[in-house]
Amino acid sequence: MRLRVLFFSAILVCSAAVRMTAQDKKGGDEVIKIDTQLVDVPVVVTDRAGKPVLDLKRTNFIIYEDGKKQEVSDFSSTTAPFEVALLLDTSGSTRGDLQLIQRAAQDFIASLRPGDRVSIVSFTTERTEKRAVAGVEILTGLTDDRKTLKDAIDAVKTSNGTPYYDGLLDVAGKVFHDPPRDEFRGRRALVALTDGVDSTSASEFQEAKEDLQNGGITSYFIKVDTRPFFEENLLGDCEVATRFSQAQIRRYYRLFSNSSKMEKAGGFCQLGDFERLDVSKKLYELADTEMNELAKTSGGKVFPVGDLNEARNAFRSVANEIGTKYSVGYYPSNDKHDGTFRKITVELKGVAPGSLIRARDGYTAPTN
């Protein structure tokens, strides 16, 4: 079983334990340890026209947890640096466009600011004695060395499958494994170029979602529409048709056909044309739902693109948004470690009417 991100590595950043001493009856020192946890909330503020509102101060923000006002204890302006995990999906219909993906990724790196650190993550094909399987590859850890990042992007390979959920877990558990340095606290993001349709992961979406949320990672998706390409060769002779993986077929029956009387197929060739189209439709709808859910709950955004030619502009939009994020932190007045979900609401004061906020919507309290 995968290890969880240690102690909510970003959203709940464990601060240094406070130690106090008190005299006991025998005159000795009794050590009392008090653990406090800072909750970081990345925030984007836009005006009525959708343009970012810059130069706001700590005093412009009011935070509520479960309806109770909290004291803002930490604040970072839009000029503070960011840490970004760039996940590049080079499976399926994108295999023939590898150079286009690499150019778009290079443009994204060039659009970031000095001091921003990036990790490059992609899918690859791992070959064993018996078969070739899709895997996740972290090509470089977090760095602001642009040459290292360029070399990593140039080393991106294609994959014969899409371990998308496994990739999300590796972002949370490996790229962002260690607690952030002070300048990056509350300022970590996932930027994924993908269609979001998993085919080979050993894990599931809920596990990845939990780790990303507990890590306080803002999720951005450049959603590539691969469905027309995928369904173009989906029907007809099963020996030459585009196939679903066994994992996808099992996911379809588990999530969408429990109440159906249809007989469950054991493999792709047992699926009729009608059911193949329904499987495809449901899996792409699931991917859309999951991406939107991760983006909304983390304060991120989904940027749909019709094809990879549009990805470069979408990457620039993501880079621009990252450069306009604030980070607001507070120590929750509810210090219970009960594993409950805590709803976060952020309000503004002293700004023009019509200004809008996009921020994460909550977190799950620790249980230890």
Structural key phrases:
five-stranded antiparallel beta sheet, 17 strands, globular, 368 residues, 2 domains, Rossmann fold, 8 helices, six-stranded mixed beta sheet
Strands side by side in the biggest sheet: 10-9-8-11-12-13
Q: What's the mean pLDDT score?
A: 85
Number of domains: 2
Query: Total number of β-strand segments?
Result: 17
Number of helices: 8
Order of helices and strands: EEEEEEEEHEEHHEHEHHHEHEEEE
- The CATH superfamily of the largest domain appears as von Willebrand factor, type A domain
**Main CATH class of the largest domain:** Alpha Beta
What integer value in Å does the Rg equal? 23 Å
What is the annotated CATH architecture of the largest domain? 3-Layer(aba) Sandwich
Based on helices, strands and strand pairing, what is the structural class? Answer: alpha+beta
Distance between the termini: 19 Å
CATH domain topology of the largest domain = Rossmann fold
Relative helix content: 25-40%
Shape, please?
globular
Tell me the strand percentage band.
25-35%
Low-confidence stretches: 1-35
